[in-house]
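Give me the fold.
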Amino acid sequence: MPSSCLITGATGFVGGHLVHTCVERGWSTRALVRAGTDAAPLERSGVAVLRGDLTEPATLPAAVDGVDVIFHCAAKVGDWGPVEDYRTVNVAGLRALLDACRDKPVKRFVHLSSLGVYAARHHFGTDETEPLPKHHVDGYTQTKVESEQLALSHAREHGFPVVVLRPGFIYGPQDRTVLPKLIHALRRRRVRYLGDNGRAMNTIYVGNLIDAMFRAAEEPRAVGQVYNLTDGEAVSKRRFLEALADGMGIPRPRPLPVPLWFARPLARLLEARARKQGSAEAPVLTQARVKFLGLNLDFSIEKARRELGYRPRVSFDEGMRQTVDWYKKNA
């Protein structure tokens, strides 16, 4: 059984939960943390903090030396900005980390990807056999595809024990980035979903994701494989947004009376105008947001159930209750 690990992105939402669980399990835990980042909470938890950066390859060999498992959670996220900015971290940074692992006795490399790598269309039970598109609507998903391909090619060519996980929309306590922005937008009545909207949203509670990450680290059959991950239940966009609004005691969002066939070219037009103006801020409607708010995003997790023994422990209703309770106490 693995007993030591390195976590990239340890100060982030998923990484923070992962650190807590690793320490709880008694693993010797190491975190790669950028210079200037407050690492005091990690150190108080007994985590060994190594200062380094994915964009500084010279800092990585010491970080990976002597660990059994690497959980690669760090990434540049978002739906706006030059693709090269995302590529620097998500692809070149991953390449540097993989290169640092050469000749190291790493037993498992768990690479956190995203269900966003699939084509921007309706999905109804799509599984891992679906080919990925070469071109995506934003820099984040584009480079997530590229980073997956890099990790898997490293596994094929060098026999490196990579596992790729594709979680859906991650929610839960301690999210200090996405959830606060969404709640703020709901309060200002700036969140609208397209259509009625009973279309699937592919949610995953952070605790369920952590369970899957440990299974990926420990299951021999997982090496070289890719797994979709969700809560395993039907959660529509409307249900998610209304549960969040109701929990926070704010008005429910209303549907946007714009058909999907119109919203998509409108998003492309607004993006083109914003780029022409050199805007650092995304327009009110982007192709990524149309995908998030308007498309049916239902993906099969049968492979993860079958090979990893993945069984989501926390239901959506319970996960949302815990999420809202934490936010009310910590906002």
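The mean pLDDT is 92.
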